[in-house]
Amino acid sequence: MLFPARFDVIVVGGGHAGTEAALAAARSGAATLLLTHNIETLGAMSCNPSIGGIGKGHMVKEVDALGGAMAAATDEAGIQFRILNASKGPAVRATRAQADRNLYKQAIRGRLENQVNLTLFQAAVDDLTLAGDKVSGVVTQLGIRFEAPAVVLTAGTFLNGLVHVGLENYRAGRFGDPPAISLAQRLRELQLPVGRLKTGTPPRLDGRTIDYSVMQVQPGDDPVPVFSFLGRAEQHPRQVSCWITHTNARTHDIIRAGLDRSPMFTGVIEGVGPRYCPSIEDKIHRFAGRDEHQVFLEPEGLTTHEIYPQGVSTSLPFDVQLELVRSIRGLEHAHILRPGYAIEYDYFDPRNLKASFETKSIAGLFFAGQINGTTGYEEAAAQGLLAGVNAARCARDLEAWSPRRDQAYLGVLVDDLITRGVSEPYRMFTSRAEYRLSLREDNADLRLTQIGRELGLVDDARWAAFNRKRDAIATETERLKSVWINPRLVPEADALRVLTKPLEREYRLFDLLRRPEVTYASLLTLPGAGEGVAEPTVAEQVEIQAKYHGYIERQKEEVARSQASEELRLPDGLDYAEVRGLGIEVQQKLNQHRPETLGQAARIQGVTPAAISLLLVHLKKRA
Ligand code: FAD
């Protein structure tokens, strides 16, 4: 049965990757179908109810700059907002929000239901249809067929999902949701390179059984930050606090005594878990010398008593979970609403993907999200947007788009995945970006919104707001470069309020702003400095761009120098065995991974700078 007919793009999965993929494909003009197990779980947060953080917040802002949903949905659902690293440099400052799970799902679902060009349908996808080595559509559990020249798979933790609580285990996509077994089987038949990974989540608690009076309160920031470039603090619902408590020696003894029934420590779980988000049993084992670990108690929403205890993710048996939770200060009488658990699932080696996230072996088939070996909502959303827009472009035979490493964290993510693959669930950090001074949260719009507009992802309202901001920054920067401050007209006392020493000669406002002790606000108090701009995001940008001018210019030169060879395309049919002097191991690696550009080739593990020089010589001879 063919119902309702055919689409340009089909997206499978309504998690963070799938929803951004479907929205992006539809925004860019493709007739898009989103198929997911359950419409009620669109935008569901499988684990912690929070969005953002260092590296992750950067990607949320990039998704927003490209017209995506995550930041705006967080503004509507966020019940606590903080700027992390607020006292450090702008490159590592990051927004993090605690979200009300239900409000977040509502915000995402609302956007999906109201998106032009997008059709939603609840179904489990069991099969892919192929025409030769191209994807041609999908088949659901009920045998309904949908056709499209481009399909984006975003199945998350659901492919062959296996949930573990102690030595008990059963098949599921996550707690309470069915696994995707038939689809996983089909992908294995297609000989896509598959592996197993694992992730875990803590037990959830009933807030009415928690004694907060013995805990440290952690309020959000005041004034409350916003996530989206178009966000306003008035959009936020009521704001709440989180609390902090700690594990102790008794907690650790209880955990150690339970390790003989831990699926991780008895070898029942084979998949590798996230090193940067370890379970509590892993932490006790790895940091044996520590006698306490922090536990953040985070409200799951405004209309529920459910609390998420961040820091005690576990797959120990339920009786051990209960005992360990109740050994923690303030949780002595805590009621567990849902047990913690671990889940093992199939992922596919992302080295089998092009930079567009299209698989190299099956044309038109795209992968995004946890299926590519990543972890985290933000990583998933960023990949989803990229795969969605590229699936739409593929359906129209347009060239794929992918940002470079110097343009976006999304570029770093793509490049890391497709050139290096993953050996454990991959999450983003600012340290992964070599150009992090340029890849800041605050300038994600300046880096990406114009590109988003060209890709058809940015609507008129965002485009107009962006242009107003960009023009205001340029005008004010020009003004600061043209206004000179004359020491004769500035009393010494005034100068000393702003500067560490009096002005000895005439200076441009722009150059004064580059001094570490001068802020934009203090600069404007100098006689003759003018009124400046009132809009805080414009003022922030003017200040950052002036302060880091030298570094940013140097970074730009560095990028320009490496760009030509970085982007040099490697011919499709290139046989690396023919490259003179190239070692067998390097030949095999290049033949196996088939990088698209010289830059990608250089980042494959084991491919040395010497090998790249040989490759360059070979390419020049061929030309
Ligand atoms: P998901 O959010 O899993 O969404 C997949 C979607 O696809 C679902 O809607 C599902 O119903 C649908 N689907 C799957 N197969 C089919 C099919 N055949 N047909 C139709 N629909 C289908 N991240 C962290 O950063 N830190 C953590 O500590 C952490 N812990 C986690 C613990 C657990 C137990 C789980 C389950 C996840 C955890 N995560 C964690 C990961 C985080 O939830 C994911 O990274 C993120 O949700 C991935 O988004 P996604 O869109 O790729 O997949």
From TrEMBL:
NAD-binding protein involved in the addition of a carboxymethylaminomethyl (cmnm) group at the wobble position (U34) of certain tRNAs, forming tRNA-cmnm(5)s(2)U34. GO terms for biological process: tRNA methylation; tRNA wobble uridine modification. NAD(+) binds at residues 273-287. Its main location: cytoplasm. GO terms for cellular component: cytosol. Belongs to the MnmG family. Keywords: Cytoplasm, FAD, Flavoprotein, NAD, tRNA processing. It comes from the Bacteria. FAD binds at residues 13-18. It is found in: Cytoplasm. PROSITE patterns: GIDA_1 (PS01280), GIDA_2 (PS01281). It comes from Sulfurisoma sediminicola. Residues 546-617 form the tRNA uridine 5-carboxymethylaminomethyl modification enzyme C-terminal subdomain domain. InterPro entries: FAD/NAD-bd_sf, GIDA_C_N, MnmG, MnmG-rel, MnmG-rel_CS, MnmG_C, MnmG_C_subdom, MnmG_C_subdom_sf. This is tRNA uridine 5-carboxymethylaminomethyl modification enzyme MnmG. The lineage of its organism: Bacteria, Pseudomonadati, Pseudomonadota, Betaproteobacteria, Nitrosomonadales. GO terms for molecular function: flavin adenine dinucleotide binding. The keyword Disulfide bond does not apply. Its cofactor is FAD.
